From TrEMBL:
Domain Nucleotidyl transferase, first and last residues per copy: 15-284
Gene: glgC
Keyword Oxidoreductase among record annotations: no
Gene3D superfamilies noted in UniProt: Hexapeptide repeat proteins (2.160.10.10), Spore Coat Polysaccharide Biosynthesis Protein SpsA, Chain A (3.90.550.10)
Catalytic activity: alpha-D-glucose 1-phosphate + ATP + H(+) = ADP-alpha-D-glucose + diphosphate
Site (Could play a key role in the communication between the regulatory and the substrate sites): 67, 106
Protein name: Glucose-1-phosphate adenylyltransferase
Domain Glucose-1-phosphate adenylyltransferase/Bifunctional protein GlmU-like C-terminal hexapeptide: 307-410
Length: 423
């Protein structure tokens, strides 16, 4: 069936989300879950942002390629994203690495993850494919980027962040001409090229690519047959298109979704403990840089049926209170002080405990007289009575993972080792 001439481009597109990364820089937070499945913002997961952007942009066909430690991610997809209906021409497929092409091959690279599922993409009957990373925090209207892709007649359109030029040394950087055509792609250059007319800034790749599916399909088949390829978009396919085809850069600022409260484009890679902690704590600011309350661009997720948060006890030294904090449903703040912190679903904080700049993942229990500062607490951790974290760097580093900037990650295994050593 041919699309109507006035149909939105997103109705002719699918989103292919790459969600198989190890996320090793998040250390123990990804011991049991893939990075896209890590919790963020009180009730969502990181992958919800890419999927919500696609859904809000009008894309109703999606596929999620998974590989490492995928169970919690797959379970979240089943519970939170199961509302797609095939009879409405909507699809969401989960595509684990399952050796469909070769019994000795898992996904070898980002391009190979798409290549091994060519038949599935074919079955969607789409004209465009939007390739997304599943592990970044941002709000973006992909329809705007699709329109640029079509108008410019590009072979590939690449989403790019505008970053200060000398900060771009940690990124893949695009050199572009005055028409935003990419003339070279440089991986972590020592002297990044600037944007024409903007000498202070450079364009860094976001890992977002739009292709015509027919073009990409042929490219993937050729790449699969190349034994010298690493089968990766950034390493192989994109440089080849820049050299031999037409690659165009798309500025994130042109399609970033902002409410009245957001003053600049917001994009974060929360791939380290420090970055994860900071991005969550930023949400507690009086006017946060990311507005998660914007109902015109909701972040969809698995919404559990939960009671409201509760605050109990009102004595001078035993008052259940939270200031400059986000407290999710099913939390009980009992006679304790929570400041500048984010409590995920189902947390319990008990009398005489204090939490300051704490990110507590779901079902954390903080027992009496604990004093916690500048820390991330993994899901289901039970903080023992009187535990003090964030005051003695040497003691923090002895039992827990402490970053160079002083953020402490606490897991139940770490606490169990500590309890055993002190018993």
């Amino acid at each position: 069936m041919q699309p109507r001439p006035n149909a939105r481009l997103s109705s002719q597109a699918m989103a292919f989300v790459l969600a198989g990364g190890r996320g090793s820089r998040l250390k123990e937070l990804t011991d049991r879950r893939a990075k896209p499945a890590v919790y963020f913002g009180g009730k969502t997961r990181i992958i919800d942002f890419a999927l919500s952007n696609a859904l809000n942009s009008g894309i109703r066909k999606m596929a999620i390629a998974t590989q490492y430690k995928a169970h919690s991610l797959i379970r979240h997809m089943q519970r939170g994203w199961g509302f797609f209906r095939a009879e409405r021409n909507e699809y969401l497929d989960i595509l684990p690495a399952s050796q469909r092409v070769d019994e000795n091959k898992w996904y070898l690279g980002t391009a190979d993850a798409v290549a091994q599922n060519i038949d599935i993409v074919d079955s969607y009957g789409v004209k465009y494919i939007v390739v997304l990373a599943g592990d970044h925090i941002y709000k973006m209207d992909y329809e705007v980027m699709l329109q640029q892709h079509v108008d410019s007649k590009a072979d590939v359109t690449i989403g790019c962040l505008t970053v200060p030029r000398m900060e771009a040394t940690a990124f893949g950087v695009m050199a572009v001409d005055a028409n935003m055509r990419i003339t070279s792609f440089l991986e972590k250059p020592a002297d990044p090229p600037s944007i024409p007319g903007d000498p202070e800034n450079a364009l860094a790749s976001m890992g977002i690519y739009i292709f015509d599916w027919a073009f990409l399909r042929d490219l993937l088949i050729r790449d699969m047959a190349d034994d010298n390829s690493s089968h990766d978009f950034g390493n192989d396919l994109i440089p080849d298109i820049v050299k031999n085809g037409k690659a165009v850069a798309h500025k994130f600022a042109d399609s970033c979704v902002k409410s009245g409260l957001e003053t600049e484009p917001y994009w974060r890679d929360v791939g380290t403990i420090d970055a994860f902690w900071q991005a969550n704590i930023d949400l507690t600011d009086f006017v946060p840089k990311l507005d998660i309350y914007d109902q015109s661009w909701p972040i969809w997720t698995y919404s559990e049926i939960l009671p409201p948060a509760k605050f109990i006890h009102d004595e001078e030294t035993r008052r259940g209170m939270a200031v400059s904090s986000l407290v999710s449903g099913d939390c009980i703040v009992s006679g304790s002080e929570v400041r500048n912190s984010l409590l995920f679903t189902g947390c319990r904080t008990h009398s005489f405990s204090t939490l300051d700049y704490v990110v507590a993942l779901p079902q954390v229990v903080v027992n009496r007289n604990a004093e916690l500062k500048n820390c991330v607490i993994d899901r289901g951790v039970i903080i023992p009575d009187g535990l003090v974290v964030g005051q003695d760097p040497e003691m923090d580093a002895k039992w827990f993972r402490r970053t160079d900037s002083g953020i402490v990650l606490i897991t139940q295994d770490m606490l169990d080792v500590r309890a055993k050593a002190l018993s």
